[in-house]
Amino acid sequence: MREVGEVVRIEGDKAVVRIRRSSACQRCGACGLGSSSDEMLVTLPNSLNAKPGDMVELTLESVHLLKASAITYLIPLAALILGVIVGYILGGYLAMDRQLAGAVLGLAFTALAFMLIRAMDPIFKRSNNFTPSMIAVLNVNNKKDDKGERRVEYGE
């Protein structure tokens, strides 16, 4: 996946980049948690020494994008299914309405899965596997470097 964004500010060795949501991204809504904005801010390593105002090209490997999607969607889905099955079985043992017990435990397991994913977010952020990386500075903010030359850098 490749996107283009504008560096908004620098925080230490990280850059905060504003990215316009693509149409596929807008339908997902996972990053913005239902935000109606068509832009999002991403904090990532400033590997190309970009400056505020620079336009940068970002990439995220497909394998990491698929892993992030699996974590975001498949784990809660598996928790929902497991909760329904466990609730249905326990409902029979506890002389409760099996369908009601399955529905309640399905929702509870799904909520627990989302809380677990949220709790693991700092671990995911530290690994940088799910963070896009800068691969090119596309244009600069009309400032020159220390030698008075325009700055254009490319990464891998």
Radius of gyration: 22 Å
What would the principal axes of the Cα set say about the shape? rod-shaped
Could you name the CATH class of the largest domain?
Mainly Beta
Number of helices: 4
Number of domains: 2
Strand order, biggest sheet? 3-2-1-4-5
Residue share in β-strands: 15-25%
The main pleated sheet reads as: 5 strands, antiparallel
CATH architecture of the largest domain: Beta Barrel
Helix content: 40-55%
Q: Quick one: how many beta strands?
A: 5
Instruction: Sketch the topology as an H/E string, one letter per element.
Output: EEHEEHHHE
Q: Which segments are poorly predicted (pLDDT under 50) over 5 or more consecutive residues? A: 152-156
Structural class by SSE content? alpha+beta
Distance between the first and last residues' Cα: 15 Å
Mean pLDDT: 79
Would you give the CATH topology of the largest domain?
A: OB fold (Dihydrolipoamide Acetyltransferase, E2P)
Written overview of the protein:
The protein is an alpha+beta fold and 156 residues long. It folds into two domains: 1-60 and 131-156, OB fold (Dihydrolipoamide Acetyltransferase, E2P), CATH 2.40.50; 62-130, no CATH class. 43% of the residues lie in helices and 23% in strands. The protein has a five-stranded antiparallel sheet with strand order 3-2-1-4-5, with no helix packed on it. Strand 1 and strand 2 (14-20) form a beta hairpin. Helix 2 (62-93) packs antiparallel against helix 3. The longest helix has 32 residues, at 62-93.
